[in-house]
Amino acid sequence: MNELDLSVKVVQGRDSLDINHITFENSAFIWPLDKSDLKLFVDQGALLVPSELEKSIYSSGVYLIFTDVSGIADDGGWDYIKVTHKNDLVYWEVWFNNGWVKLVFDLTVYQKELIEIMHQLELLSPNIIVQPSQIIFPE
C-alpha cells in the first residue's frame, strides 16, 4: 500500500522557497513528507494541484494531480492521472519518466488525509497564496 503522507507547507514573512529557479513568498503548498510515495514526483519539480486532489477524494476520473512549478503542465511533461476508486482502494496510474507508475492507497486513509489537508488550506490567512496559483492544463 502506498502512502500519501502530505502536509501543508507555508512560506511567509521574510522566508521564501526557490523551486527550479522560481521564488515563492507568502505561499502554501501541499507537500509530501519524507515517507510519502509522492515525494519522488515533487523532487522532480512538480507541484501538487489542490483543486484536482480535492476532486479525487470521492470520485474516480482523470485529474491533473501534478503540474510543473510554473503551473503549466506541459512545461514539466505532466499529464492527467487516472484515479480509480474500487473495493475500498484508490488506484493512480501516473505516466512518469516514459513509463507507468501505479500507486494504490487505502480509500479511508486517502479520504481522511485529503479532507484534513483541504481543511488546513481553508484556514490559511487570506494573504497566503495556495500554489500553484494558476494552472494551465495539458493540451
Class from secondary-structure proportions: alpha+beta
Largest sheet: 4 strands, antiparallel
Overall pLDDT = 96
Number of continuous helical runs:
3
Question: Cα distance, first to last residue?
Answer: 32 Å
Order of helices and strands: EEEEHEHEEEEEHE
Description of the molecule:
This protein has 139 residues and is of the alpha+beta class. The chain has one domain (6-130). It is built from 3 helices and 11 strands; from the N terminus they run ββββαβαβββββαβ. The chain has helices at residues 39-43, 50-55, 107-122; strands spanning 6-11, 17-19, 22-24, 27-32, 46-48, 61-63, 66-68, 81-86, 89-96, 99-106, 129-130. The strands form 4 sheets. A 4-stranded antiparallel sheet has the order 6-8-9-10. Strands 1-4-11 form a 3-stranded mixed sheet, covered by helices on one side. Strands 2-3 form a two-stranded antiparallel ribbon. A hairpin with a 2-residue loop joins strand 8 and strand 9. The radius of gyration is 14 Å and the shape is globular. The N and C termini lie far apart (32 Å). The mean pLDDT is 96.
What would you say about this model in short?
With 139 residues, the protein is α+β, with helices and mostly antiparallel strands. It has helices at residues 39-43, 50-55, 107-122, and strands at residues 6-11, 17-19, 22-24, 27-32, 46-48, 61-63, 66-68, 81-86, 89-96, 99-106, 129-130. It has one domain (6-130).
Write the layout of secondary structure elements.
Blueprint: E1 6-11, E2 17-19, E3 22-24, E4 27-32, H1 39-43, E5 46-48, H2 50-55, E6 61-63, E7 66-68, E8 81-86, E9 89-96, E10 99-106, H3 107-122, E11 129-130
Parallel strand pairs: 4-11
Antiparallel strand pairs: 1-4, 2-3, 5-7, 6-8, 8-9, 9-10
